[in-house]
Structures are given as C-alpha cells and as structure tokens.
Amino acid sequence: MVFDIIEEHGSHEQIVVCHNKDIGLKAYIAIHNTTLGPALGGTRMWTYNNDEEALVDVLRLSKGMTYKAAAAGLNLGGGKAVIIGDPKKEKTEAMFRAFGRFVNSLNGKYITAEDVGTTVKDMEYVFMETPYVTGIPKDFGGSGDPSPYTAHGVLMGIKASCKEKFGTDELKGVRVTVQGLGNVGHNLCEYLHQEGAILTVADIDKERVKRVQEKLGAKVTDPNTIVTEETDVFAPCALGAIVNDDTIGNLKCKVIAGGANNILKEHRHGDALMEMGILYAPDYVANAGGLMNVFVELEGYSPDRAFEKTRQVYHNLLKVFEIAKRDNIPTYKAADRLAEERIHTIGRLNQQHNGKSTRPYTTLREVLKR
Ligand code: NAD
After folding, report:
1. Is 287 in the pocket of ligand 1 (CB under 6 A)?
2. Would you say the CB of residue 153 lies under 6 angstroms from ligand 1?
3. How far is Cα 79 from Cα 40, in angstroms, rounded to an integer?
4. DSSP one-letter code for 76
C-alpha cells in the first residue's frame, strides 16, 4: 500500500521514515527532486488521522516545493517533512532534537524550516543537531520573519499582473482588495499604500482591520462578501480555496494576485478564470518572496539582498503569462510548465557539463564555509 501511495504522487527521490519510540517521534521526510539544489521545505506538525494521511501530505507538499523553487529561479529542490502529533500538546525538546538527527543524516540533501504547527523555537532544537535548518532566529544568523518579503514579492506579482492586464505596472489609482490583514496582508497593504493604490480590506479580526483603516485610510468591507467586491485586483491573503464553485460566478475583479496558498480550490477553477478573462497570478509564483528570503539565509543573510531578490517575482510572473499565451493554457498550468522547463534544461546542462551529476547542489555547510 505504501508504494502505491508513493507511485500515485509522482516520482520522489527519497522518503525517510523517522521513528523513535521512547521519545514518541513519528515523522516522514520526503525529498521530491534535487536537480536544481538541496530539497528545501518546512516541517509541519499536525494531528493526522493516520499514517497514510501524513504520507500523502508530505508527498504532495514536497512536490509543491520543487515547483515553487524552480519557478522562483532558485537553486533549490523540493522537500518537506511532517511530524505526526498534536503541536499544542506533544512537543518536546527531545522530539525536535531526534528529528534534527534524522535531518542531519541526509547530509544536506534536505534542509528544513518551520511550517504550520512548528515554530522558530522548535527549529532552535533542530539546529542543535544539524546545520541543515533555515528560518532560525536572527541571533543565530537566521532571516527571521519571512512575511515582509513574501508581501513585497506579492506586490511585485500584482505589478506584473497589472502590466499584463492593463498595460502598465503603475498602481496609482488602481483598486486593490486585500482579504486578510495578518503578517502578509498587513505588510502588503503598507506597500500598496506607498504605491498609491486604492485599498479595500477585510479581516475577521477587528483589531487588525482598525490598524489598517486608521494608518492607511483603507475602505473596510465585510469579510463575508469581500471575495465578490467590484475591484481591479483581488489579493487573497487569508485562506486557501477561495476561488471555488460558490465564489467563482460572482467574482467582479480583473486580476487575482495574492499571498495565500492554494487559491484555486480545484484546477478546473483556473480553467474557468481563463475563460472569464480574469488574470490569475499563480499562488506559488506570487508568494515565493518568503522562500527567496530563506534562500538568501543559506548564502549568509543580508536583508537588503533578500529584499532585492523578491523583485524577481515580477519577472517570473511575466514569464508565466508569456508561456500561457504561447501555449494557450491557463496560467496555473503555465507556472508548472515554467518550473518543469527549468528543471529539464538545467538538469540536462548538469549532465552535459560535469558528465555525472544530476544533483549538483552545494550543501549548507559548504556554502557557509565560503
Ligand atoms: P496570518 O495568520 O498572519 O494572517 C491571516 C489573516 O487572515 C488573519 O489576520 C486572519 O484573521 C485572517 N482571516 C482568516 N479568515 C478570514 C476570513 N474568512 N476573512 C478575512 N480574513 C480572514 O497568516 P499570514 O502569514 O499572513 O499568511 C497568509 C496566507 O499567506 C496564508 O495562506 C499562508 O499560507 C500564505 N503564505 C504566507 C507566507 C508568509 O511568509 N507568512 C508565505 C507564503 C504563503
């Protein structure tokens, strides 16, 4: 059964089962593809109903990271880890240190980070056992909170989408509706305000709404109806699956570009957006700024360089739109194609130029030695 599940979810390079009965550690690490570099992806801790559910999640998420890194133009592959357990009740130092030892045994083929259910504190324990961890506190040379970088990348994504849709990336006077004013949404609103965009916002947290309303003069709308607000750009920065059967028929935007993951409930919703003439900036391309920030941490962190790097989102999205037009396909498919083409081309180059390696990554330790 395990192999059937693995086969069903594509061709992963390696799957590691991490188990320590005494400590209560049950985890999977999945390395999807390392053609472009070491597999980077966070460690999720979740109360999965069973081992199968956890395996499916790690396979799916690690593949997603391969595509995200490749489309972002980073020399990283895709990986992910999941720890089975309740993040509120079952965390211990020993658990994360044991997990760190499993990560270390992969010698840099997989680099981890925090994710849903894990925190920077947990990563400090992992860091005690392995250097192959990112998103560690600033005191340890880490990059800290990725959200401002994600938000700046999203701003670049909105600009590229406007260039494509309206012929200009000037945001002055453009109506942008932001759903969710958390770490990403709030920072995004600040950037949009600086650009002169006309902001409409909503959040279920009234304090967050008040902050943006008072500071940036944003118009506030109902969280239950924001998705169908008439606007130029809809920027989802809260929930996934926001484009679904219930919302799609009522959308009154021209562009969808935001920070949220998995904006399309199903692929067919991306096909429908194309038919409706709504330009969709594929989520994993638009929200890659956080990953770019972490990548800079591997090279020796500089906030300025990380900020500069997030500008690349603009060019990556223009490439996606170009492929969509070239092949007459929806943009979500074009994003996958951009990633696959890059992996294919660079993979071939690796073979041609050093004759042996299909995995020419530099480990974190080697990078840090430079
Ligand atoms: P967050 O938890 O800080 O903010 C989410 C906000 O959405 C909260 O303020 C919450 O109250 C609000 N919200 C929840 N339900 C809502 C609803 N129905 N209507 C309106 N608002 C609602 O999270 P974040 O870090 O800002 O991330 C936002 C999204 O971006 C998530 O989908 C996340 O996976 C994705 N993302 C984040 C990063 C990052 O660097 N933080 C990177 C990539 C992707």
Report:
1. yes
2. no
3. 5
4. -
Asked whether 185 lines ligand 1 (CB < 6 A), one says: yes
DSSP letter (8 states) at residue 38: S
Distance from C-alpha of 51 to C-alpha of 57, rounded to nearest angstrom: 10
Q: Whose CA is nearest to atom 43 of ligand 1?
A: 287
What domains are there in the chain, each with its CATH number?
A: 2-64+77-133 (3.40.50.10860), 147-329 (3.40.50.720)
Q: Among residues 26, 63, 68, 80, which one is catalytic?
A: 80
Residue 252 annotated among the catalytic residues of the structure? no
Q: Give, as one character, the DSSP assignment of residue 223.
A: T
The per-residue pLDDT for range 342-351, each reduced to its tens digit, is 999 998 887 7
What digits encode the pLDDT tens for the residues 299-336? 888 999 999 999 999 999 999 999 999 999 999 999 99
The secondary structure of 230-296 as a DSSP string is --SEEEE-S-S--BSTTTGGG---SEE--S-S--BSSHHHHHHHHHHT-EE--HHHHTTHHHHHHHH
State whether residue 81 is helix, strand or coil: strand
